[in-house]
Structures are given as C-alpha cells and as structure tokens.
C-alpha cells in the first residue's frame, strides 16, 4: 500500500476497518480546521474517507450520514452514498465522485441548485421528520436570527479598533442597521398576522443543505453538478436557503442568477407567505452574513487560516477585503427591503 505523508497509522487503521477489500493507496486531498478528506483506493473501487472534527457543538457526522441516507432512500441522486461509518472515531467512508471544481456558475447551474433544493423538499416523509434534526444555526424565528447576529457582533466589537476603518463602519452602519431592520421585520410580521418571536411551525419548514453552493459541488464530465458536504444539513425556514445561496461570499452570482434561484424557490414554496416574509427578513439575513464574513477579523479565525494553510496575503489584507465585502453586502439591503429580486 502506498500512502501520503498525511495518512497516519490511525487513518490507515480506520480505512482498513471500513473498506471491504485490501487498500492500495491513501492520499489526503483536503485538510483544515474542519473535516479532512482522504482518497482511498482499493482494487475494486475508490472511496472518500472523511474525518469529522471533535471540537464542535454539532454532530457533523450524524448530520451528514442522516442527510445522505435520506437522499439515497428518496432517490435524490448526484450525491455520495454512505458505505460505512465509525461514529466513535468520527469517520465516514463515502462513495467517490469524480469531477472538477465549479469555477464559474452558469444559469443552468443555478437552476440545478434550485431543483436540488426543491427535490429535498418533495422527498420529506415521516422518517425524515423523526430522524433529521435542525440545520446548523437554523433561522426559524426572528429572535433566532437576532441572537446569531448579536453573538457575532459582540465578538467583533471587541476587535473593532484593531483595523482603523472598521470601528466607524461597525458603529455607524452595522449597529444602527440591526435595530432598524429588526423593527422593520417586526412591523412586517405584524401586518401579515405572524408572530416574529415564534418558530415557524414544523409543517412550514424544509430540509436545506445550509452550505450549498459552488464550493460544495463538482462538475462531472457530462457537465452536470454533483452535490457534496452536508454537515450542516437539517430543518430550517425555506427562506434561509434563498438567503444562504444568494449571499454566500464563495460564489460570484449575477443579479439575474440570484433572482433565478429566488424565484424558483418562491414558485415552489407557497405555504407560509414566503414571498411576503422574504423582504422582511432579507436585511437581517444580510447582516447575519456580514457578521459571518467579518469573522475573519478575529484572531482565532486568522489562526484557523494559518493552521489550514489557507492564508492568502497578510492579515491586514484579508481584513480589508472582508470589510469591503461586508460594505458591498450592506449596499444591497435597501433593495431587498422592497421585495423579491427581479430577473432582468
């Protein structure tokens, strides 16, 4: 057996335990502060061996195994299948998917992502309702969204003076915007006859990947997308799927593409005034994403980049880039308050 220098004796032992046949080679293809991925070659097949992190407030292995089991059971294809699991050691052996990174997202890709999300919703059954938990950081009520933003704001406030241009942006834009957008969302919910403080009822929720996008997809030889990484999978408001997809900083989507995804989902979900609630919540979702993007200003996030060999440029460069991304996102929020994106 050949192995990369990163394939330790522990990895080899797990691979031997989970694979049915003798192993020919093991090589690590992704390493970072999150999960690690190894390509395992046997005489009969190629597999992805995934090691999940220990220090987390969420059982990522369980979430992904449940998600992939649901998709296989419901015939929702173009995803890996679970071959074997070692829960006590936090490993899963998955079928291998050949493909290339999705460098440019086309309109057809956006339609594919939307169709995948809709297929997940159509596949919901009693077993899924009992076996699958909430999505990571589910946004099932106004206070839940507010709590996520406020928690991140508190950490950012502690470092706001470390970057000269950030303190004014935080104090004069981000903080006042939160109060204004919360008031607007509460008023909109009152007009609709909904309780902003209450979780939406289970029958109005759907299953979402929560981190879906080009960064978690591969393009196969036939040009079609295959979908990966379901560690954050679970129940959430359908509107969270829209917000996460159109705001994700890992993709460069045109306004037309954002509208394509949004309109596809609004055309499918019509059970809890999604079209009316969306403009009320989108600005809050936007501030939530600003806070996520600005997390790179925190010293521990920079250390995470260094540990995962993902650092590009100096920390000052990265922090300025993230502030610029947050400013750009804030600039879109006024248009979101007016209603669903229009396709041009």
UniProtKB/TrEMBL annotation:
Coiled coil: none annotated. Keywords: Transferase. Pfam families: APH (PF01636). Residues 26-272 form the Aminoglycoside phosphotransferase domain. GO terms for molecular function: transferase activity. Gene3D superfamilies: 3.90.1200.10, Phosphorylase Kinase, domain 1 (3.30.200.20). Transmembrane segments: none annotated. InterPro entries: Aminoglycoside_PTrfase, Kinase-like_dom_sf. This is Aminoglycoside phosphotransferase. It comes from Reyranella soli. The lineage of its organism: Bacteria, Pseudomonadati, Pseudomonadota, Alphaproteobacteria, Hyphomicrobiales.
């Amino acid at each position: 057996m050949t192995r990369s220098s990163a394939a330790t004796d522990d990895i080899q032992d797990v691979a031997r335990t989970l694979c049915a046949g003798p192993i020919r080679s093991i090589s690590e293809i992704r390493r970072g502060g999150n999960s690690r991925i190894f390509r395992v070659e046997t005489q009969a097949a190629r597999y992805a061996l995934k090691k999940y992190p220990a220090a987390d407030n969420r059982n990522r292995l369980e979430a992904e195994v449940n998600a992939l089991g649901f998709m296989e059971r419901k015939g929702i294809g173009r995803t890996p299948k679970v071959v074997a699991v070692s829960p006590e050691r936090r490993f899963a052996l998955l079928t291998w998917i050949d493909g290339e990174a999705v460098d440019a997202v086309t309109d057809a890709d956006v339609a594919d992502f939307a169709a995948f999300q809709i297929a997940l919703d159509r596949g919901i059954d009693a077993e899924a309702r009992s076996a699958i938990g909430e999505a990571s950081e589910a946004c099932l009520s106004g206070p839940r969204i507010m709590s996520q933003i406020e928690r991140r704001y508190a950490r950012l406030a502690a470092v706001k003076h470390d970057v000269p241009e950030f303190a004014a942006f935080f104090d004069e834009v981000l903080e006042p915007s939160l109060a204004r957008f919360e008031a607007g969302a509460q008023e909109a919910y009152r007009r609709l006859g909904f309780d902003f403080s209450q979780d939406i009822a289970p029958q109005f929720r759907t299953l979402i990947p929560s981190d879906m996008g080009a960064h978690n997809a591969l393009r196969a030889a036939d040009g079609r997308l295959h979908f990966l990484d379901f560690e954050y999978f679970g129940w959430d408001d359908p509107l969270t799927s829209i917000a996460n997809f159109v705001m994700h900083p890992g993709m460069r989507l045109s306004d037309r593409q954002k509208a394509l995804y949004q309109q596809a989902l609004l055309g499918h979900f019509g059970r809890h005034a999604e079209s009316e609630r969306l403009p009320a919540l989108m600005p809050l979702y936007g501030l939530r994403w600003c806070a996520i993007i600005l997390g790179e200003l925190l010293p521990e996030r920079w250390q995470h980049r260094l540990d995962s060999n993902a650092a590009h440029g100096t920390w000052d460069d990265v922090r300025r880039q993230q502030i610029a991304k947050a400013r750009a996102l804030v600039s879109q929020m006024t248009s979101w308050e007016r209603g669903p994106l229009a396709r041009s």
